[in-house]
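User: Hey, my collaborator sent me this sequence without any context and asked if I could get a structure. I don't really work with proteins. Can you help?
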Amino acid sequence: MTDTTPAQPATPAFPAGSVLGYPRIGPRRELKKALEAFWAGRSSADEVEAVAADLRRRTRTRLAELGLATDVPAIPSAFSFYDQVLDATALVGAVPARFADLQDADGRLDLAGYSTVARGRGDDLPLEMTKWFDTNYHYLVPEIGPDTQFRYASDRPVAEFTEALAEGVLTRPVVVGPVTYLALAKPTEDAPSGFSPIDRLDDILPVYVRLLTALAAAGATWVQIEEPALVSDSVGVSADVLAEATTRAYRVLATELARPQRPAILLAAPYGDLGSALPVVAATDVEALALDLVRGDAPTVPVAGLAGKTLVGGVVDGHNIWRADLDKKLAILEQLETLGAAAVTVGTSTSLFHVPHTLEDEPALDRTLVQWLAFADEKVREVATLAEGLTEGREAIHEQLLAASDAVSSRATAPGVVRPEVRERVSALTDEQFRRGPFAERKAAQAARLNLPALPTTTIGSFPQTPEIRKARAAFGKGELTAEQYEDEMKAEVRRVVELQERIGLDVLVHGEPERNDMVQYFAENLDGFSVTQNGWVQSYGSRCTRPSILWGDVSRPAPITVAWAQYAQSLTSKPMKGMLTGPVTILAWSFVRDDQPLGDTANQVALALRDEIADLEAAGIGIVQVDEPAIRELLPLREKAHAAYLDWSVSSFRLSTAGVRPETQIHTHLCYSEFGEIMEAIDGLDADVTSIEAARSKMEILGDIAAAGYPRAVGPGVYDIHSPRVPSQEEVTELLTEAVRTIEVDQLWVNPDCGLKTRRYEEITPSLEHLVQATRTVRASL
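Assistant: No problem. I've predicted the 3D structure and written it out in structure-token form, which is a compact way to encode the shape of the chain:
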């Protein structure tokens, strides 16, 4: 009998070395500047598109120069104007109903409409924003309901692939996978109880089929579909549901849609260990799997289904900036070769958009430190080197292996990496240093000292960093202003900020932080054990970028940092002035942190430095100290089994920094842009007297968790979303505040924005804060 089953075409060649993604904002933040000019009406969409096209071209050229092949799809096509999850929303046409007028007849968004969905307009709130797994990147949360219409509404992945192909570069398009997209989505407000966006999987898959078909027709040989939801227990969908959804999705995308109707599929699972999901994805008919072997472990025994697949070993860390020990990484790859896969190739653990572009842009960094580091370009070279070693043998890269091992080992004995006096102080800590007295006693003492009204109003800390402030800071850096002149200019700004707050009528004031370039970098510049970069920009969300500091050694505080500024600001007003600090967990989360000791040990070193600062603020007469921890949820491990250990050291480090104050000194903290319902017990464990928390975009969603937990201390749910240029009306703020009063006891409530005001303009924040105060007075009058 003759077998008439059609023969499957041979799997196209996959590169020996590749990366999952590359920084997309531009080495000099070119995309940021182009977008913000467009939003301000100073340039056209065509001009932004031209900047974006040039960035993509330069990225392809650079990656080829660094050793990635152009005739096989080693170079990913992973550009975004704002956010890869928003790109997926545009792809499937799932625009919320309030923005439906921005779509054309085919569901497409132009750049202006795309931007509006991200940033909001008038009374139309933008999509909610939250953290992307355990990173400091923020994504825009899709809103999916039972009636959300899915359609193939964006051909950008195809157009950008075609753009590269016309230049002779065979790229690999990158898209967020359907399982992850729906797992990260939230139900629309009108969705019935019990509905989950993952219920719509069968409805969204035809769009992905259309995309894959179009990519194949355009000549794409491989596509990268990212499913990081599979490495997390914190996406709101159970492991069993995710497994079933994955099997169903890739039956449609990889089995029923057979090649050559589609490209070969690389299913990538970055940010952690696949664990029990590995056999699930191995059983699908995708042609390759990309495994995170930095946060995850390499399989030690063969897994059914891997025999016909390529394994991309993500051994080069896309999440941190330390140079790889190439010998150890090559050993991991060699172990993968024993698992029976069709092929093993080299990759990064995650996209490289989490790290800066290149060390070549950092001439001021200490040369000893530089030899320990690898930014994006240097990591691409590491991938290329490992690929050569894997294909040609260790001898082919013998010198590179020795150089990398020597660089890594040199850290252990370098001055400042280990400081005995710092370690002795940490080892001598006692349980008493982590505890404050009973909250009831503290509450009474603080009420007597501060004498605040019901629903006290305040802000989170920073005020707009105006062009004048930035100009003065640049002039000071160039030596065009003396230290005294610079200080005078910053004091003048503090005076303006204090006067503005008093005029608006806020109850508890801040000095506005004009002297601070960044809430972490400012402290890094004043603590031993840190270094800072000049051009180490990393995308945080949209057009917003940060320059994470490098925490490389033992940490201590050589001198007071914020005390003089707080004292000066307090001298300008009779109202309480908050001292403003960044907490130990956030300093770690928003820095590139040493990887040669447990994070908890490093956190305690930072906490002791902050404890000293708080003691000096208290001695200077500052009655309220805010220690911001917006990132405490961000570092929560993706697997539940690791939660308890993390929460233990993270909560303890905060308490260590704050527990030395007297009862009458009020400790505030601030948390933002994460799903905090999961860690209410830990928030309680911080033992802060007042906790301000993001709530405006989610319309006070967190209040139910706070009330259900019986949270005993004061909270300030944000009533003004500062991550949008919208000015909320007095009525909108009143509605949010009224909802808060219905849910939480009045004597527990504070009124504040969602976050600091640094990135906004005075034209936006002044009326917004006026509306906040007016709304508070309205609600007070109704009590």
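In plain terms: The first strand starts at residue 76 and ends at 77. You can pass these tokens on to your collaborator as they are.
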